[in-house]
Design goal:
hpI Integrase, Chain A, mainly alpha, disordered C terminus, globular, 5 strands
């Protein structure tokens, strides 16, 4: 974390408040990436430098006019290429400040104002069709790489959830099988896996060579400095997905989370309850409602027709 200091070498009270808040986020189990790169960058590299430039060192100085000036400075800020910050970027920088002030109020600090979030239109994301996903898998030569695409696409895992999978996370219980996934905030959930994919994942686990550094399902092909196989990294998984889309000649921006997004879209279109989906995907119903407004009236009509035709029978 960046430390902002006064001329006498001491940190400001506002900087210490930010540091306490980020420590609280870490203690609550938020992902290190969220704490350091998202909240930490917005607070330490955007908000606090602005405060110091404007000689704001105390929470009590952040009144309504002050936070409005901070928000206005983001709207008028120009990037190195001369373009203004997008509303999405402004939103990304302001939201952690609002959360900081909300936390400060909850622990007994006097908070005089909070910045307003700019309105932003939700970008529409393309969803991959099942045919496009099949093409991506077929375009790859390695079974490991094929399984990366197929597991992301058929189980809706996040990138880091896939990376952390180990052979012991393939769980059979009677007729059913699951992937035991460590999700956000260290929450464990069981994600159903289809029999064909299950057998392929078990073969991958059984065929692992000796000399692994950790018990991970997806390993790098290169050995580390001790001649041991290293776990596949986030960037390694990202490259596999991008390569699959390129080889399959898919003219969309494809990345690992798009496979999860496409899976959730497919589940909703085929009538899965948003409550069931939230449990399997490890996402709140509110997030699902906010992110899947791209489903059309035809999707809603088809889902309703399936329910009514299946439950009411022939009433003619």
């Amino acid at each position: 974390m960046a430390v902002h200091v006064l001329a006498n070498g001491t940190s400001t009270p506002l900087e210490r408040l930010v540091d306490d808040y980020l420590s609280n986020c870490a203690a609550r189990g938020l992902a290190p990436r969220t704490v350091d790169k998202d909240y930490g960058y917005a607070l330490n590299s955007v908000f606090l430098p602005w405060c110091l430039t404007n000689e704001i060192t105390q929470l009590s100085q952040l009144d309504g006019r002050c936070v409005d000036r901070f928000t206005a400075s983001l709207h008028t800020h120009r990037k190195q290429n001369g373009e203004p910050l997008s509303k999405y970027s402004v939103h990304t920088y302001i939201r952690p400040v609002r959360q900081l002030l909300s936390w400060a109020k909850s622990v007994g600090e006097e908070v005089r104002a909070t910045p307003q979030l700019p309105r932003r239109s939700k970008p529409l994301r393309d969803a991959l069709t099942r045919e496009e996903i099949d093409r991506m898998e077929k375009a790859l030569l390695s079974e490991r790489d094929k399984l990366i695409v197929r597991t992301l696409a058929d189980c809706g895992l996040r990138l880091d959830e896939l990376r952390r999978l180990g052979p012991t996370d393939i769980v059979r219980t009677g007729r059913y099988a699951y992937l035991r996934v460590l999700g956000k905030r260290s929450r464990v959930r069981d994600v159903p896996v289809m029999p064909q994919l299950l057998r392929r994942l078990e073969r991958l686990a059984d065929n692992h060579p000796e000399g692994r550094t950790v018990d991970r399902l997806f390993l790098s092909r290169r050995r580390g400095r001790c001649e041991l196989l290293e776990p596949l990294t986030d960037s390694g998984i990202y490259k596999v997905v991008v390569e699959a889309a390129t080889l399959a000649r898919i003219h969309k921006r494809v990345y690992p989370h798009l496979l999860r997004h496409s899976w959730m879209t497919e589940m909703l279109r085929n009538g899965m309850s948003p409550i069931q989906l939230s449990i399997i995907a490890g996402a709140s119903p509110d997030v699902i409602a906010a992110c899947y407004t791209h489903l059309t009236k035809d999707d809603a009509y088809s889902a309703m027709l399936r329910v009514l035709s299946g439950s009411s029978g022939d009433r003619s």
